[in-house]
Every structure is written in structure tokens, then in C-alpha cells.
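INFO batch 0412 | record 1 of 1 | parsing
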Amino acid sequence: MQTKRTARQNTMWICTTAILMAMNVALSSFGVPVPGGHLYLNDIVICTASIILDPLAAFMVGGVGAFLGDFFFYPAPMWVSLVTHGLQAIIISVFSHYVLKKKPVLASGIGVTVGAIIMIVGYSIGRAFIYSTPEAALLKLPFQILQAVVGAVFGMLLCWKFGIHKLYTNKLMRR
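INFO prediction complete | emitting C-alpha cells
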């Protein structure tokens, strides 16, 4: 049963969602150069946001944030980003909030793992479709795997080791 949020909680929800979406736009607009390509760090924001936020806010941060980042700076894969990162964020959030409620760290770990697989497969299929060749997708596959792993690991660390989950749930969203 969902309890009704207070006006303060609604304001915090909107502000947190907007700030994390802006961070996703910023981090999806440039990549860290690595040999043979770029590593985008927006998956860290997507995983972190999805662990602490509900599925709707997670979709806004993950899907819409990545869509806007691509729209402003590199529009070719923007629809792939919307669907892939949006689905990734929803799945992570659902696992984090509704599966294994007594073991939230394990549930989040399963969620980010499934989310990483969704991101890798979604972008591989999307790249093959956008660039009309599976070879283009295979060339970028190692970078997609690296991005997914970095996002999942750092998202889990930020939420559970460095206390962002506790800060958000106990301090920002308290009644």
C-alpha cells in the first residue's frame, strides 16, 4: 500500500529527480577517452538514481535524461537511449523497491546486474540498427560492457557504501 506523500516530500522528489536528470544530461554529453572509443559515466547517475527513486522518477532520470543528452549533443542514438536507459532504470528501481524488501542491497545488486544486461543488449541492437551493420555494434561492445560495469559498481557503492540511499530515505524524504 502506497502512502500519500506530503508537499515537502513531493518538492524533494521533483528537485531530486530534476538534479539527477541534469547530471545525466551532462554526463551523457561527453565521454572519457579510452583506447578505441569513449567511456560515458552517465550510467553511474542512472544506477544511483534508480536505486533511490521510484520507477517513474528513475525513468525520467535514466531514459529522458539520456535522451536529452543525446538530443542536444549527438542525436543519432537518442531514441535508443530513451528506450534502453529508460528500461534499465525502471528495472533497477523495481528490484530496489519491490523485490527482496528485507535485503535491499541484494535486491539492488540484482537490479543493477539485470539493468547492465539490458543496457548492453539494447545499445548493441540499437547501434546495429542505427548504423545498419552489426560490425559497428560489435566494435563498441567492449565499451558498452565497461560502461555498464562501471555504472553498476559505482552506483552500488554510492548508494550503500557512501550512504546516499540512507541520506535520501532518512533525511530528505522523511515525513
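INFO post-check: The two ends are 17 Å apart (CA to CA).
INFO record closed
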